[in-house]
Each structure stands twice: as C-alpha cells, then as structure tokens.
Amino acid sequence: TASEPITFQGDRMEALYADLPGQWDRIWIWEGDADNVFEYCHIKNALVGIQCETDPSYPQGLSSPDAQNQVVLNNVSILNSSAAGLLSRNYRIQSTNLLVANAGQYAMVLLGGGQYQFNHTTVANYWGYDIRQEPSFYVSNVVGTVVGNLTRDIRPSVFRNMIVHGNNTNEFQLEMSGGNVDLTFEYCLLRMESGNLPPVYFPNPSTIWRNQNPGFRGAGDGNFRLTENAFARNRAVSTSDPVSFLDLDGMDRFWDGLPDLGCYEWYPE
Q: Under a CB-based contact definition with an 8 Å cutoff, are residues 173 and 133 in contact?
C-alpha cells in the first residue's frame, strides 16, 4: 500500500549505503504464464532496477516474438541504478505513477519491439558519480541479438503526462530504423535538443513543452515532488485510468483542479 510499500534494496542498512548505487544486480523478468505486477514498490541501489525481455536463452534469442504478457508498474519508484533503471527488450509495459531517477547510463531504455502505456511518469536523471553520456530516456525499435541487430515493430503505445529531465542537455531520444512504429507522446515536458517534433510521434505539439524547468523541490537531493510555482503544475490531462486518481504518495490529483505532470501532485509542504 502507499503507507506500507515493498522495498527492494541491498542488505547493508548503514547510512553510508542508503543511496549507494550498484549494491545488487537486478530484477530480471523473462516471459512467463502471467503478467508481472509491481504495486507500491521501491526499487533502489541496483545495477539495473528492472530488466524485462523475452527469454534470451532460446536459440533465436531476442529475435523471438514479443512478450504476450506484460510488466505492470503502478506506484513504483526505481532509484539510484548504476547502469539503468528500467530496461526493456521486446516486452510490453503498462505503468501509472512511475518514478525512475538517477542512473549511471539510461534511466529508462526501451529496445526492439513491444508495447507501452505510460501515464504520469517522472524520469529524472541527476547522476553525480561520474560523467554520463546517455540520455535519461531512450526508445529504439532496434535490438541486438546473437545474429546481429534486428528491427522490430512497436505496437500502439502512448506516453502521457510525463516529465523527462536531468542535468544533461539532451535527456530524450528516439531512434527508429524502419519497421512499423506506433508511438504517441502527449502532455509531456521534455528536456531535449531543439528541432521539429515529428508529427508521427507528436500529433498534438501544443501538449509538448520542451526545456522548461519542471519545478522539482530538490532534484539534487532526490526530491522530485513539485514546488507551488512549478511549470509542471496543472498541465496534465485527466484520464479514465483509476490508478491515476491518486499520485505516487497516495494524494488526490484533483484537489486543486487539473492534475500535474509526472508522478507527483503538488501539495503544500
């Protein structure tokens, strides 16, 4: 529950290890008989927070069909991963109220085929241990396999009410190579390089805000809740998703009118 979440972390409880990345390997999900559901979970200080993919031990490896089941991430945070927070290869992901923050490479990297439904997501990468070259958020329909790089199809996918930000100039990157790609981004605040927004991925450009400060209370201290005057306030769109009616802290999204972008709704401190 919101008041009693599940925490995945290393077994060192001293203060020195509270936010130290890379203390354990990862949660590694292959294809199975049912969906993999995480609700009210905090995943912290791993090499990779969650890695989900079709079974790479098959002879055809990642050239096998996309996963039929999905990973469900509702009210989940993935923090302080020394490599990647969320890594997907040919998988399906459904998520509401997700925080992925502070990773040594990508915070969220989605490769190959798959299908994605993300609502109220905050991707924030203020990694401070060394220089980071990779963007926080990266999506490509190419995936490496034992037989080389393969181009896959991305089935109808929507990213809505999202914040992607960090301490690099470009934190958002899409890289496609043919195939059928059905991606939609709307009501998103993105830190990214200037240039035209491809209408195939951004059909409603007026709902995309670029290179604005989202208004985190304390990004350097890992606090990605919003300030009262935050740019991200009241810019989200209401959806019929019942999980989205409350934010990651379990607070009412509609108490002051329109919901806010990202996984947190502003409340007075």
A: no
